[in-house]
Amino acid sequence: SRGRMYSSFGGSLQKLQVEEEQVAASSQPPQDLTNWGDAFKDAIQKLSIAEAAQDTQDRGMVLPGRERERKQISSFLRNAIRGVASGNDYDDSVRSKSSTIFIAGPPGTGKTATVKSLVHELKNDQYEGILPAFNFVSVNGMECRSPYDAYVKFWEELRREKLASQDAVHELENYFCGDGEKTNSVIVLLIDEIDYLNTNRETVLYNFFDWPLRATRARLVVIGISNTIDLPERLQPRVQSRIGGTRCNYQAYDVPQTIRIIKSRLGMSDESTPRYQVFDEDAIKFAARKTANLSG
After folding, report:
1. Segment holding 129, helix H or strand E
2. Strands 186-192 and 219-226
3. In the chain, at which end, N or C, are there fewer CB atoms within 10 A of the end residue's CB?
4. How many CB atoms lie within 10 A of CB 202?
5. CA 128 – CA 126 distance, rounded (Å)
6. What sections of the chain are H helices per DSSP?
7. In whole angstroms, what is the distance from residue 160 CA to residue 65 CA?
8. What is the distance between the alpha carbons of residues 163 and 156, in angstroms, rounded to a whole number?
């Protein structure tokens, strides 16, 4: 069927390499099979999740179709790193909006990729003196054996010291909210999959989103990412007041956005066309419709 033809990449490549007539039947003029095969392999590599993740995290690639969300998160991070509206003259609700953000949406919609792409951009601005210095730390709740391991991972990233969870939370409390000398440190913490950090008393989530409000020694900016849009409403009121200050919701990709993403990955923009167009327009539209129908 047509679906199998465009999804079974390995089998298609083998056929195309040994059956020259299939190349001749494509939308492109017959080309040297070795070069076309290399182009096919390169296209598949560019469409892989690993390659896309590397492009966003290491090269700062901007995700097509996420311009609005990127603009909102960028504005939040720039203001938070500069310390805009985070002084002691502001009440808790203002400080919450200026130092914490909750990002939610279906899996695979570019939440984490947007943040890591922005951090790459902001680090470049830091090196050029446009932004104050900041440290970026990422913790994934899914990778924690228990919610309390998030304390351990966070402290280990900050101080290169591994402690038991009860000791780590004590050190973190003192690091941000203790009575010691104030520092100029700015820590941007990304907590991905924060659903996994929920406990019966909800103390882990509360602490991570409460420290930015009470910080007296070092400033903490927290980005929480979840697949559950209404997660704050499911929590206790005291946690809601901390986690829901600023929100950015992601929607599933629609068909036009998915087409833009595929073409962007393949270098098929309006300004440029690859030498070997591996997939024709119908194939791309078909894949976009299938993806959008599943989840976006």
Report:
1. none
2. parallel
3. N
4. 18
5. 5
6. 2-7, 9-18, 20-24, 33-46, 49-59, 67-82, 92-99, 111-127, 149-159, 165-177, 203-214, 237-243, 255-266, 281-294
7. 38
8. 8
Query: 3-class SS at 192?
Result: strand
Regions of the chain where pLDDT drops below 70: 1-34, 36, 46, 48-60, 84-97, 244, 269-276, 295-296
What's the maximum distance between 2 C-alpha atoms anywhere in the chain?
76
Residue whose C-alpha is closest to residue 40's, from 282, 266, 197? 266
Helix (H, G, I), strand (E, B) or coil at 274: coil
- Closest alpha carbon to 195 in 216, 173, 225: 225
Q: What is the dihedral of CA 107, 50, 12, 39, to 10 degrees?
A: 130
Rounded to whole angstroms, the Cα distance separating 267 from 50 reads 17
- The secondary element (H helix, E strand) that includes residue 188 is strand 186-192
> What local confidence, expressed as pLDDT, does residue 118 receive?
95
What is the distance between the alpha carbons of residues 228 and 281, in angstroms, rounded to a whole number? 34
Pairing between β-strand 186-192 and β-strand 135-140 as defined by DSSP bridges = parallel
Residues 6+ positions from 254 with CB-CB distance below 8 Å: 292, 296
d(CA 28, CA 97): 53
| CA gap 121, 26 in Å, rounded | 40
Residue 79 has a pLDDT of 94
Q: What is the 3-state secondary structure (H, E, C) of 70-104?
A: HHHHHHHHHHHHHCCCCCCCCCHHHHHHHHEEEEE
